[in-house]
Specification:
Elements: E1 2-7, H1 11-17, E2 33-38, E3 44-48, H2 61-73, E4 82-84, H3 87-93, E5 109-111, H4 112-122, H5 125-136, H6 139-153, H7 175-188, E6 200-203, E7 206-209, E8 221-229, E9 233-240, E10 247-254, H8 257-273, E11 275-281, E12 288-291, E13 299-303, E14 308-313, E15 320-327, E16 339-347, E17 350-359, H9 368-383
Antiparallel strand pairs: 1-15, 2-3, 2-10, 4-5, 6-7, 8-9, 9-10, 11-14, 12-13, 13-17, 15-16, 16-17
Enzyme class: hydrolase
Pathway: Cell wall biogenesis; peptidoglycan biosynthesis
Pfam families: PBP5_C (PF07943), Peptidase_S11 (PF00768)
């Protein structure tokens, strides 16, 4: 049962809200799928079909890069290692394949650092396959590693079948999962993130610019990845620290590179400029509670990930309302740190922000008296 608890937000926020007239959230996008996320808290400021399955195209290479970085951090791979360019990598991802390529020579060996740079800057399909084969022996086994790490990250609506993002009916992701994947890369591997803003990369005498054209536009975008197939259209995952905080944006399902660039630019610029930040809940402060059916405690306290701020459209303070939403009652055991609810903030009737909430502590199963009383309470609620 979906439970909704109207939330009285901090007094400071209510004082703010009395100051100005109501306004409407006005942003829209031509993208079929889109999301805008605050990096620090995971708060969502805009979304459009963010949980609908979609073909990732070359944005799947972010998952490839995540596996490579994970293997480097674990000490199993080094940037100085050299991997062999197989005939499969050359034929499937090389120049003759017609897709984005590094122009790697068959039977040559290339360092992991150069392969990673090619994947990020040139979107090299051949480089992606060479990395997959060099780490896992085959691209199929590497895809298993991609899905295992995706599960660890919490990308619950994604399934990867290859390292390149080349079309496969079994491969899918969502805009939300791609934003969370970008968030993982930025948070866990900050020492490597500068690779995403390299303006160009040359290999085999061929110089190619970064396919993410926003990197060179001077608007503060410093990553991450573009993608395109005939079936899926054009998309990109972008990030910027403009506006005093880092934002991550995803757009996909567009009709051209020009449209992709413009829609991604519009989304990330709007997010950087159109909101004012209002502190609401300091780090560790309780936002609310969720009911636990048959638990040793009747409720569990909920907190955000770090400090939880509200980002309100400028001139829209009076429209503020909020609620905690979760599927409940929760069933024990509830684990400390589990994502069990969301804080939803509205401007008039428009959802303008959604932030994950987490259980403060473990809640185990209660005794038989507790379970019986909770059963009666739920039955009474059902009658009502």
């Amino acid at each position: 049962m979906r439970r909704i608890l109207t939330l009285l937000i901090a007094t400071a926020c209510l004082l703010y809200s009395a100051a100005s007239a109501s306004a409407q959230v006005t942003f829209s996008t031509e993208a079929q799928y889109a999301i805008l996320m605050d990096f620090e808290s995971g708060t969502v400021l805009f979304q459009k079909q963010a949980d609908e399955p979609m073909e990732p195209a070359s944005m799947a290479k972010l998952m490839t890069i995540a596996v490579v970085f994970h293997e480097i951090e674990a000490g199993r791979v080094s940037f100085d290692d050299e991997f062999y360019v197989s005939e499969n990598a050359w034929r499937t991802g090389g120049a003759s394949s017609g897709g984005s390529t590094m122009f790697a020579e068959v039977n040559s060996s290339i360092s992991v650092e150069d392969l990673v740079t090619s994947v990020i800057v040139q979107s090299g399909n051949d480089a992606s396959i060479v990395l997959a084969e060099g780490i896992a022996g085959s691209e199929g086994t590497f895809a298993l590693m991609m899905n295992e790490l995706a599960g660890d990250i919490g990308l619950d609506n994604s399934h990867f079948t290859n390292s390149t993002g080349l079309p496969d009916p079994e491969m899918h992701t969502t805009a939300r999962d791609l934003a969370n994947l970008a968030r993982y890369l930025i948070r866990e591997f900050p020492e490597y993130y500068e690779l995403f803003s390299i303006p160009e990369f040359e290999w085999n005498g061929i110089n190619q610019p970064n396919r993410n054209s926003l990197v060179e536009m001077g608007i503060g975008v410093d990553g991450l990845k573009t993608g395109h197939t005939e079936e899926s259209g054009y998309g990109s995952v972008v990030s910027t620290e403009q506006g005093g905080r880092r934002l991550i944006g995803v757009v996909h399902g567009l009709n051209s590179m020009r449209e992709r660039t413009e829609q991604a630019r519009a989304l990330i610029t709007w997010g950087s400029r159109a909101f004012e930040r209002i502190p609401a809940f300091p780090e560790g402060s309780v936002v609310g509670q969720a009911d636990v059916f048959g638990g040793e405690k009747a409720q569990v306290d909920l907190v955000g990930e770090g400090a939880l701020d509200l980002y309100l459209p400028r001139g829209s303070r009076r429209c503020l309302s909020a609620q905690i939403v979760y599927e409940g009652p929760l069933l024990p055991p509830v684990r400390q740190g589990a994502h069990v609810a969301d804080l939803e903030v509205y401007c008039d009737d428009a959802l303008i922000q959604s932030a994950p909430l987490y259980a403060v502590e473990d809640v185990g199963q209660g005794d038989i008296v507790r379970r019986a009383s909770d059963a009666l309470k739920e039955l009474a609620l059902g009658w009502l």
